[in-house]
Design brief:
Elements (H helix, E strand, L loop, with lengths): L9 H23 L2 H22 L7 E4 L1 H5 L8 E7 L5 H16 L4 E7 H10 L1 H7 L3 E5 L1 H14 L2 H18 L18 H13 L6 H6 L5 H25 L8 H10 L10 H31 L8 E2 L4 E4 L2 E4 L4 H4 L3 H11 L8 H10 L5 H5 L1 H12 L4 H10 L2 H5 L1 H5 L14 H15 L9 H8 L5 H9 L10 H15 L4 H13 L2 H8 L5 H11 L2 H16 L8 H20 L5 H17 L9 H4 L4 H6 L2 H11 L9 E11 L2 E13 L4 H11 L2 E10 L4 E10 L8 H15 L14 H5 L5 E6 L5 E8 L4 H11 L3 E10 L2 E9 L6 H15 L2
Parallel strand pairs: 2-3
Antiparallel strand pairs: 1-2, 1-4, 5-6, 6-7, 8-9, 9-11, 10-11, 10-14, 12-13, 13-15, 14-15
Length: 863
């Protein structure tokens, strides 16, 4: 009789069960796409495996194998660990200890990532009594195998240790701390699906506090208890479903326990979900907008439910409500509706609620039932509502209050009211643009700019923005600026020029809300021109009178100039912490001052008049150093009008003081000095460097390489060649990390750069460094424009992803073509470089050669 096949080794059998189950889950999910089913089925598979192992190991029947945490809840993601409690009736003997240790080792040997604890019933309850985290893990415990009576005693003891009020306070504090850790925004560029505001944890904490208070374990339980409506239950289920889908796909895509939607995975995740790019938006941007809108919904419902559950857990020590009007009252420091049908009965009260919060600073928010009624009634804001003159007047008042403007606009956005009232705003809610310098979604950026504009008007922030605070104090109807901020980016993502498209939205809003024609024109103009001032300041030579005159003609008068300056500063500072620096602030302030003086005079100054003024001022400054009245003559004879137009009187005096005695020396001269640029309440150190040496073709490239190796960014360069063939170049440098520059660096640069110029070799590139992950995963297409101007020069404009050594590479390419550099305006917007150069000579006299240079630059700029 043939022998039967040998039984498989238990370890191999368990491994096969685990792997086959995992593969089946993955196949089922790829064919059906049901995340909730995968979570349940993985739990079921692990349940069966663990129970079989437990039984095969023949543990005493007095023990209990218990699932806790997410596993106890019945949710196991593809790469989540498995939380287990090995519950004992009493302290184990040595034999049982050894057997339990072998069990845990076996779990790991077959490929299970176990988070386990071995506790007696008494130990469990003692730990739970003093630790909210332990209570949270145990509250969702589920018996897998073992002694049901022991598990029942455990559940009863745990229930006895739970104090719903203490538990609620602790979980609310944990949530507040978690929000702070994630910068209190659901709109992070790389959000954590589990922990970020609007993530799965926001949903879990609601169910935890409800369960601890005996109010239910599911959304349906809370619906039956009257805490949420059927509509809200469905919204919660759908929101949870999207988060589950994203997290499941993320685990499967990365093959590990990864909860962050990193740049690396956003595009493949979008493709995995069937999201395709459009002509105006990347697939990853569409995916992230869907996530952000879902996260916003989760945070809204979390706030409403936590307030509703909190009201049930904490019996209010009611003070008699104080009537505000027929529809609203003050209740315990919160705005309360007189009844929950207020908004249904009179929809206009939806806007009045926020106006009342502005007008009553003692109110700290809304009661739970007001929030709930507001949420239910938000869909009443339709075309008829928007056309109602009373509603339009109320909405306009929200911009005009003395306080609470930004806070209430943010609150309106949080609860979906703002996007309902202005549908164009609703379209940009949660919209992220991976343009390498915006750090916020469009709606959050808009409200951040409004916040910056508002701070200009507040005395407590006058030290931050001295000039802006002074200007806005004298501005008639500053609330118009808030309207301009609301619309300045409202057309993002539509395709085309968002500034032009936004003008139509702004004009329609102003006309519908009865603004005076001159105010409508100002708001519309600001939306259309909101990028112009930063472009002129950062990309053009603002020391050129013609540049300033052209800008002055564009703004026309002081009111438009001041409004545009204020919006520009607020906008740049609201884009990303990386984008603003003191140098940009100085450029904008200088452009504002020069344009204002020109508008006040009413006459564009002639270049010769400008030169005379600067020369006279330079001579006045030179007298402070006890230099003769003729000290300037030798150097100034070698300088043309372009030099005097491009340099300030102070720079001219500095150059003259350094060079008057060595105009014809062959040895190079390098002078460096620290200059403070005042940025609001802080001063930023820059290093200003002057280089004077015999001109040479690749000089600019070698200087770029030196400064890069020394750890500096060039933010401004003025390149000049004297009549007798000397290069007189000036640079403004910032530390690469925007740190304070030590004073000894000036001496270091003078000595080392002089040595490098005395012993010239081939241009040496600075360290290349590493590209940021954002640049790697969201590259921008380089742009190069090389156009002749009317003065015999060419204007070279470059847009590319910033990287170490970029300016050096551009300089080398120009040198190969024999192009002489006149000025360089270096603008870095986060990870995006937008540089402008004035060049002449070399290959630039023929269009075919200019095209060849453009082609080489484009090839070099490809990342």
């Amino acid at each position: 009789m043939p022998s039967s096949a040998p039984a498989p080794h238990p370890l191999a059998h368990y491994k096969a069960m685990l792997q086959e189950g995992q593969q089946a889950l993955k196949s089922d999910y790829q064919s059906q796409g049901d995340a909730a089913a995968l979570l349940r089925q993985r739990c079921s598979n692990i349940d069966k495996l663990l129970v079989q192992i437990w039984q095969d190991q023949q543990f005493p029947s007095s023990l209990a194998l218990v699932a806790v945490g997410g596993y106890g809840r019945g949710e196991l993601y593809p790469a989540s660990d498995i939380d287990l409690l090995l519950l004992l009736p009493e302290e184990p003997d040595e034999a049982l200890k050894g057997k339990l240790e072998q069990l845990v080792g076996l779990f790991w040997d077959i490929g299970l990532e176990i988070g386990h604890s071995v506790r007696t019933l008494e130990e469990c309850l003692q730990e739970a009594a003093g630790d909210i985290t332990v209570q949270t893990a145990l509250i969702e415990a589920r018996l897998l195998s073992g002694d049901q009576a022991l598990f029942s005693r455990f559940q009863q003891g745990l229930a006895a240790t739970l104090d719903p009020q203490t538990f609620f306070k602790a979980k609310k504090l944990e949530q507040d701390e978690r929000y702070i850790r994630f910068h209190e925004t659901p709109y992070a560029l790389e959000p954590n699906l589990k922990e970020s505001p609007g993530g799965l944890r926001d949903l879990q904490v609601v169910l935890w506090v409800a369960q601890a208070a005996g109010l239910g374990r599911t959304w349906q339980d809370l619906e039956r208890g009257g805490f949420i409506t059927a509509e809200e239950t469905q919204a919660l289920i759908e929101a949870q479903g999207l988060l589950e889908t994203l997290r499941v796909r993320l685990h499967l895509l990365t093959g590990r326990r990864e909860d962050r939607l990193l740049f690396d995975v956003q595009t493949p995740m979008a493709a995995d979900m069937g999201i395709e790019a459009t002509p105006t938006r990347r697939s990853s941007e569409q995916l992230m907008q869907r996530y952000y809108r879902n996260a916003k919904l989760v945070t809204q419902l979390n706030i409403i439910l936590m307030q509703n559950i909190g009201a049930a857990i904490f019996p209010a020590q009611e003070r008699a409500p104080e009537a505000i009007d027929a529809d609203f009252q003050k209740a315990n420091g919160l705005l309360d509706v007189s009844d929950e049908e207020v908004f249904q009965r009179r929809p206009g009260a939806l806007l009045e609620a926020f106006l009342l919060l502005q007008q009553n600073p003692d109110l700290k928010g809304m009661t739970a039932r007001t929030l709930r009624a507001l949420w239910r009634a938000r869909l009443l804001i339709n075309d008829e509502f928007r056309a109602d003159p009373a509603n339009r007047a109320c909405f306009l008042k929200l911009f005009q209050q003395k306080q609470g403007i930004v806070h209430e606009f943010r609150r309106m956005n949080q609860y979906g009211i703002l996007g309902r009232y202005i549908p164009a705003f609703g379209a940009v809610v949660g919209q992220m643009q991976h343009d390498l310098f915006h750090a916020y979604t469009v709606d959050q950026h808009i409200l951040q700019v409004m916040r910056n504009m508002r701070r200009f008007t507040m005395e407590e922030f006058a030290h931050e923005y001295p000039l802006c605070s002074r200007l806005v104090a004298g501005f008639d109807r500053p609330w118009l600026l808030y309207i301009a901020t609301l619309f300045h980016d409202i057309a993002k993502g539509r395709g085309g020029d968002h500034s032009s498209l936004g003008m139509a939205d702004a004009r329609a809003f102003c006309e519908n809300h009865g603004l005076a024609p001159e105010d409508t024109e100002l708001v519309e103009w600001l939306v259309g021109q909101h990028l112009v001032m930063s472009q002129v300041a950062q990309k053009e030579d603002i020391t050129d009178p013609e540049v300033v005159a052209a800008f002055a003609a564009r703004v026309r008068d002081e009111r438009h100039l001041t409004a545009l300056y204020l919006l520009t500063v607020a906008d740049i500072r609201g884009t990303s912490p990386k984008v603003w620096n003191a140098w940009k602030g100085k450029l904008l302030e200088d452009l504002y001052g020069m344009t204002l003086r020109l508008l006040e005079k009413g006459v564009t100054p002639e270049p010769h008049g400008v030169i005379e003024e600067r020369q006279e001022e330079a001579l006045r400054l030179l007298r402070y150093f006890a230099l003769s009245d003729t000290v300037h003559q030798g150097l100034w004879k070698q300088l043309d009008t372009v030099y005097f137009l491009r340099h300030s009187a102070e720079e001219i005096a500095w150059h003259t003081r350094c060079l008057h005695y060595r105009i014809h020396h062959d040895e190079p001269l390098v002078k460096a000095r620290l200059r403070q640029i005042q940025d609001c309440s802080e001063a930023t150190e820059t290093l200003q460097v002057m280089v004077y040496t015999r001109d040479q073709p690749d000089l600019f490239a070698r200087l770029c390489g030196f400064f890069g190796r020394a750890g500096f960014n060039i933010v401004d360069a003025k390149i000049h060649t004297t009549r007798h063939g000397y290069a007189l170049d000036s640079f403004i440098l910032l530390d690469v990390s925007n740190r304070e520059i030590p004073r000894e660096m000036a001496s270091y640069v003078e000595h080392e750069l002089t040595e490098a110029l005395l012993h010239p070799g081939p241009p040496e590139a600075p360290p290349t460094g590493r590209l940021s992950r954002q640049v790697r995963h969201f590259p921008i297409t380089p742009q190069v424009s090389l156009l002749p101007d009317d003065r015999g020069h060419c204007v070279l404009s470059i847009v590319a992803a910033d990287r170490p050594g970029l300016l050096f590479s551009v300089a080398q390419t120009l040198a190969r073509h024999g192009a002489g550099l006149q000025t360089a305006k270096i603008a870095t917007l986060g990870e995006r470089a937008e540089d402008t150069f004035l060049v002449s000579g070399g290959d630039l006299d023929q269009s075919s050669k200019r095209i060849r240079l453009e082609t080489e630059l484009l090839e070099m700029l490809q990342v």
